[in-house]
């Protein structure tokens, strides 16, 4: 292998990003959510975004089952929520510890996030250990607040002047 896993991870730590929780609800798995930084816009017309989900993540099964998901961008005070949705708590606890509601067509949306997108899955590509899930945005919700950031393995806050 040209680049080792450690070298790859160390290089990618130089990429600063926001933090989002991807959520889904399905008959088989109930409400589920997981923290991601692998989120990007893809296209404006049609409005497409992508998230990269580890093939071992339970939430990926729920997204596959329902065909819908939401992306919730966390605010700067939601570090603990990010940790819970990254495996720190059971799915039940994750949703018990944060305010949320269902948006059409039945996707959980986190009330305190600064932006939520509800999406329909239009494509799913297997790449290495992950699935690239492409969603068409069906609705957007925007709220006030600063974003939580992630850089070099740690949470950061925006410096504003
Ligand atoms: C800051 C942060 C960013 C993360 N980003 C991703 C990501 O982009 N994709 C991913 O598959 N897992 C990511 N994870 C790990 C998942 O959140 C974690 O494995 C989660 O528990 C898997 O979901 P599950 O509980 O549904 O299995 C991230 C974790 C943290 C703390």
Describe the model.
The protein is α+β, with helices and mostly antiparallel strands and 161 residues long. It has one domain (16-151): Electron Transport, Fmn-binding Protein, Chain A (Pnp Oxidase, Chain A, Roll). It is 20% helix and 47% strand. The protein is built from 4 helices and 12 strands. The protein has helices spanning 5-12, 58-66, 79-88, 91-96, and strands at residues 17-18, 20-26, 30-36, 39-43, 48-54, 68-73, 100-103, 107-110, 115-127, 130-142, 148-151, 154-157. It has a 7-stranded antiparallel sheet with strand order 3-2-6-9-10-5-4. Strands 1-11-12 form a 3-stranded antiparallel sheet, with no helix packed on it. The longest helix has 10 residues, at 79-88. It is globular. The protein starts with a helix and ends with a strand. 31% of the residues are buried. Flavin mononucleotide binds next to strand 3, strand 5, helix 2 and helix 3.
Helical stretch count? 4
**CATH homology group:** Electron Transport, Fmn-binding Protein, Chain A
Low-confidence parts lasting 5 or more residues at pLDDT below 50? none
* N- to C-terminal distance: 45 Å
CATH topology: Pnp Oxidase, Chain A
Strand fraction:
over 45%
Biggest beta sheet summary = 7 strands, antiparallel
Architecture per CATH nomenclature, i.e. the level-2 architecture: Roll
Average pLDDT confidence is 96
What is Rg?
15 Å
> Percent range for helical residues?
10-25%
CATH class category name = Mainly Beta
